[in-house]
């Protein structure tokens, strides 16, 4: 790996950082990409300093607007900030692209790094791409990394697991039910934000969330032995006018202090890398196994299964026994 490139990334040079993310993104979706691996290997030792903030919630709740406002507030407080906007739902949606372009214009010249990433139809690849992009930004010295995801399904919740602090967004007027409760993402919230507080129903949404927190005392308990409790604060914002944004930044800081004081940051990191390593192994083992299996043999095995000559389990056992990778093969 070119040392100039690595030092440009580490200095936070925006073009080098953008190029690095393009490489790891390509690597995450490719079958085997040695460049992307070498890059992460070279950068990994310099990571571990950023505070990663996940922002999730139903489409239209105002995540992008809030993330932009948060980034500007952090900037005003002298922090180096980067944004990753993940849009797994609509990789080809012109609307999302247009929205992202407007956002980038909005942030042009502010020194805030922003990057959007789409799934290309593979959630597994997307999670790996986001995970690696976070590492690049961390190594590049960004102190705050904001990751925006649509909170609708399992894949998005997984991406939120990479965060040290997870914000769950609600907004009144998207239907009478609280989306986070419906989607079961309240469990992952460290800070609850009721955005669009300029609209009717914001106070009712706050009350519903507070009631839910009281009814489920387990919410907010972080996973440690002495069951140290963190009750997620519920904060009203008007992201459009940046009202309440300072309160959100303060709540995130309190959560960060709470994590550090109770040794819980390490738990978050363990959860994050356990997930990432599992996913990496799954992809690697599958790819390496299939690479040693001749296509004709694969077709024959599929034929045997469809003709009911053999069952799936014995075929899988055979493939694993005969074709899993010997050490040093395939790399
Ligand atoms: N009235 C009102 N509208 C908002 C507020 N925040 C965002 N919006 C609008 O809500 C729409 C969706 O916002 P966006 O940030 O794209 O939501 P996302 O889909 O969750 O990323 C946009 O038209 C925003 O301008 C707010 O605080 N009040
Ligand atoms: Mg958005």
CATH-defined topology of one domain = Rossmann fold
User: How confident is the prediction overall: mean pLDDT?
Assistant: 85
Bound chemical compounds: guanosine-5'-diphosphate, magnesium ion
User: Low-confidence segments, ≥5 residues, pLDDT <50?
Assistant: 91-95
The Rg value, from CA coordinates, equals 22 Å
The side-by-side strand order for the widest beta sheet comes to 3-2-4-1-5-6-7
Which geometry do the CA atoms define? globular
Oligomer state equals: single chain
How does the helix and strand content classify structurally? alpha/beta
Question: At the fourth CATH level, what is the homologous superfamily of one domain?
Answer: P-loop containing nucleotide triphosphate hydrolases
Indicate the percent of residues in helices. Answer: 40-55%
The top-level CATH class of one domain is Alpha Beta
**CATH architecture tag of one domain:** 3-Layer(aba) Sandwich
**Largest sheet: number of strands, sense, barrel closure:** 7 strands, parallel
Strand content: 5-15%
Ends distance: 17 Å
The total of beta strands comes to 7
The H/E string reads HHHEHEHEHEHEHEHEHHHH
Number of helices: 13
């Amino acid at each position: 790996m070119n040392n100039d490139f690595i030092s440009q990334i580490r200095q936070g040079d925006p073009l080098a950082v953008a190029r690095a993310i393009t490489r790891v993104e390509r690597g995450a979706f490719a079958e085997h990409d040695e460049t992307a691996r070498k890059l992460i290997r070279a950068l990994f030792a310099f990571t571990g300093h950023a505070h990663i903030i996940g922002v999730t919630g139903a489409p239209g709740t105002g995540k992008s607007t809030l993330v932009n406002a948060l980034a500007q507030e952090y900037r005003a407080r002298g922090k180096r900030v980067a944004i990753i906007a993940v849009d797994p739902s609509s990789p080809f949606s012109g609307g999302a692209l247009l929205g992202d372009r407007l956002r980038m214009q909005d942030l042009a010249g502010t020194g805030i790094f922003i990057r959007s990433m789409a799934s290309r139809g593979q959630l597994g690849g997307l999670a790996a791409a986001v995970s690696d992009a976070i590492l690049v930004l961390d190594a590049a010295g960004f102190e705050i990394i904001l990751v925006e995801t649509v909170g609708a399904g399992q894949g998005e919740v997984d991406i939120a697991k990479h965060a040290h602090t997870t914000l769950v967004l609600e907004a009144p007027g998207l239907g009478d039910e609280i989306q986070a409760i419906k989607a079961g993402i309240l469990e992952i919230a460290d800070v609850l934000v009721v955005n669009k507080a300029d609209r009717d129903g914001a106070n009712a949404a706050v009350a519903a969330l507070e009631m839910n927190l009281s009814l489920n005392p387990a919410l907010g308990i972080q996973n440690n032995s002495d069951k140290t409790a963190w009750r997620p604060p519920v904060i009203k914002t008007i992201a459009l006018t940046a009202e309440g944004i300072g309160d959100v930044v303060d709540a995130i800081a309190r959560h960060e202090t709470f994590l550090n004081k109770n040794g819980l940051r390490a738990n978050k990191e363990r959860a994050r890398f356990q997930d990432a390593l599992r996913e990496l192994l799954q992809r690697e083992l599958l790819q390496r196994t299939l690479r040693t299996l001749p296509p004709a043999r694969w077709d024959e095995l599929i034929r045997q299964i469809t003709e009911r000559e053999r069952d799936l389990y014995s075929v899988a056992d055979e493939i694993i026994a005969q074709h899993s990778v010997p050490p040093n093969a395939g790399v």
